[in-house]
Amino acid sequence: MTEAAELPSAPEQARAVFGERFSDAVRYAELLADAGVQRGLIGPREVPRLWERHLLNCAVLSEVVPENVVVCDVGSGAGLPGIPLALVRPDLKITLLEPLLRRTTFLTEVVELLGLDHVTVVRGRAEEVLGKLPPVHVVTARAVAPLDRLAAWGVPLLRPYGEMLLLKGDTAEEEVKAAGAALSKLGAVTTSVLHVGEGVVDPLSTVVRVEVGESPGGVRFAAKRAKAARTGRTRRRR
């Protein structure tokens, strides 16, 4: 049986990024390195690079998230990028959306332990909560699937003129080109690749921004949302 990898001390950049929530960020890192590994939420080889590759890499996403908006983190897993984003941005209202029970159990424990009152954990897949959760301004996700598939899950959750902010890797530009037609059908009007985290992470974090128009998800999902809204109004009258 191999020994558990040791969590390194937080780099100085972490203090500046997390500010008054730095101690909570340290606690979250400790939970990932301990319970997160034990429950199979992250691999033990990720522990030595938890700060640079995971917490800080996700926290700098805050640079491109608008103020005072509602966010849905799709496929949140162990809480990346949702938890680091919540720690640095108390102005946001964040839903961590995750289908697996063992992960939502962990997320709920983290949210309660860290006192993240502006964060809600929801168990389910994106396609299952469509029409049940109010549309959001921003959908976030972290390289859990190819761009076209991520967009098919996340774009329908957006309100008109919302945006997806997806943490991606070195192939981001290629993915954007390959997914162009699919994104257009989903109602995307602009897609761009951004680099964030100057002075914090090296290499910089790569973010794909997908901005939608007045019909996020395309015509089919617009009709589905309208039907869900009518059903909701009917139930409230009863």
Automatic annotation (TrEMBL):
Keyword Disulfide bond listed: no
UniProtKB keywords: Cytoplasm, Methyltransferase, rRNA processing, S-adenosyl-L-methionine, Transferase
Coiled-coil annotated spans: none
Location in or out of the cell: Cytoplasm
Chief site of localization: cytoplasm
Protein's UniProt name: Ribosomal RNA small subunit methyltransferase G
Domain of life per record: Bacteria
Primary role: Specifically methylates the N7 position of a guanine in 16S rRNA.
Keyword set includes Transferase: yes
Lineage summary: Bacteria, Bacillati, Actinomycetota, Actinomycetes, Kitasatosporales
Protein's organism: Streptomyces longisporoflavus
